[in-house]
Amino acid sequence: MLVARRLNLLEAIGIQLAMNTISNTVNIADFSTEGAIKQILKLLTIFEIGLLISNAGTGKPGNFLEFEEIRTKYTLQLNAISHLSLVHFFGRKMAKRRKEEFL
User: How far is CA 83 from its chain centroid?
Assistant: First the structure.
């Protein structure tokens, strides 16, 4: 499953993957919002994920105190909280599956 904000980029990557016989689906989400993470995790509950590449983020160099608080919260959600949520969710599923393999 490919997830990002920009549909055109997702579709281009999806085509490249399909040319290499890698099936995929595309979903649009903005990981700077908590609601998007919840939506994607709900969609992915049915999938057995063996590899997670969490690569969303942005850089905003500059004087911290000159940034509006809301913009800083947006960046924190995108650069940290979204990754934490994804890794926590899929890490638990992967660990459980691994334990079950060895029973």
Answer: 7
Angle between helices 82-101 and 34-44 (to 10 degrees): 20
Q: pTM value?
A: 0.78
> What pLDDT is attached to residue 102?
65
**Is the confidence at residue 13, as pLDDT, over 60?**
yes
Return the C-alpha torsion angle 27, 8, 25, 14, nearest 10: -150
- pLDDT tens profile 47-71: 888 888 888 888 888 899 999 999 9
Distance separating alpha carbons of residues 81 and 66, to the nearest angstrom: 22
Alpha carbon distance 85, 83 (integer Å): 5
How many Å apart are CA 70 and CA 51, to the nearest integer? 32
